Amino acid sequence: MSTDQLRPMSPVQIAQTRDFIDGLEAGAATYWDMVKIGDELSRELTISAELVILYADGVEDFNPWYEGWRMNSWKIPGQSPFGGAIVPPLLVSHFVLSVQFDHTRPFAIGSIHTNHDSEILAPIPIGATVRITTRATDKYVKRERRYVRHSVTVEDVGNGTLYFRETRDILSL
Amino acid sequence: MDLKDLLVTRDTPVGYELQPLKKKAAIQLMGSRLWGRFNPNHWDTVYAGATGLKAPIQTGEMSSAYISEMCVNHFGEAMFTGARIVCKYIASTLANEVITTHGVVREKIPKGDGFRFIVDIWTDNEDGEKKTVGFVEVDVDVMGAHA
């Protein structure tokens, strides 16, 4: 296997890629060993129009309800059945990993997200600041594989609206 | 096709099939900063190979996003007010695979003035190998349930 096997790269790009990955690996640790049952982590995220565009473009979801930013106009109020532009239903679920993989700790190698059970309770308006809270509720071994379970809530920092709840498992080395 | 015709109504029968979406697991998107760049298993062939993977694997959340896009097409604003989506990633989505989303209405449970729809969902590749499986629950015509 080579770095440029699936996409064209010059020697400079290959060297930059290997340097980046070496940097990630240098401080890596195993997720299982980082987490204790009962660990609670929490961070605030302002869901800007630009962040939503980055998320939606990555999965090629071009629903106009999510457009609070448009080329040429830039910031726009947008339109959805709820008034202005809203956040895609599972966007906050993707950002949960940035909370549970505590950003103050080393890169967690070999971790794979295996499942989620998510409740989308209310639409999140673009521009909202939310608090994502994760709590480690279980660590278990199944078929010789190690899993860590978290429960998650996402609330509006300004008005307390509970937008989202989730239970999710991570497979760890 | 008029997208409004896709909307599920109280009269939509059990067994109704949602319109599928097709997406290619493009490595440039899998490795974008917002999606998978934090973990080289999602975009680097060499790193993925060293950890025993056949190829870089897509983050599971990308499959969940594909499924939720299909569900928004069919349930509209109801997907944002009291919906539930459960996904289990049973096989890895590999770089360059073409993924198709699927959904079939399994059950309609009377609720208030309307119904709680239960829809089996999954994704598969060109060979029909299932990658993500689960279900979605959405209220249809349940007035004021989430006011």
What does this structure look like?
Chain A: It comes from Sphingomonas psychrolutea. The complex is a heterodimer of chains A (173) and B (147). Chain A has 173 residues and is of the alpha+beta class. Chain A has helices at residues 11-26, 31-34, 49-58, 91-100, and strands at residues 29-30, 40-46, 69-70, 74-75, 108-109, 112-120, 129-142, 145-156, 162-172. Chain A has a domain at 28-48 and 89-172: Thiol Ester Dehydrase, Chain A. Helices cover 23% and strands 35% of the residues of chain A. The longest helix of chain A has 16 residues, at 11-26. Chain A is globular, with a radius of gyration of 19 Å. The model of chain A has no long low-confidence stretch (mean pLDDT 94). With 147 residues, chain B is an alpha+beta fold. Chain B has one domain: Thiol Ester Dehydrase, Chain A (Roll), CATH 3.10.129.10. Chain B has a five-stranded antiparallel sheet with strand order 1-3-4-5-2. In chain B, strand 3 and strand 4 form a beta hairpin. The mean pLDDT of chain B is 95. At the A-B interface, helix 1, helix 3, helix 4 and strand 6 of A face helix 1, helix 2, helix 3 and strand 2 of B.
Give the key terms.
heterodimer, A: 173 residues, alpha+beta, Thiol Ester Dehydrase, Chain A, 5-stranded antiparallel β-sheet, two-stranded parallel ribbon, 23% helix, 35% strand, globular, B: 147 residues, 3 helices, HotDog_dom_sf (chain B), Fatty acid synthase subunit beta (chain B), HotDog_dom_sf (chain A), N-terminal of MaoC-like dehydratase domain-containing protein (chain A)
Short note summarizing the structure:
The complex is a heterodimer of chains A (173) and B (147). Chain A is built from four helices and nine strands. With 173 residues, chain A is of the alpha+beta class.
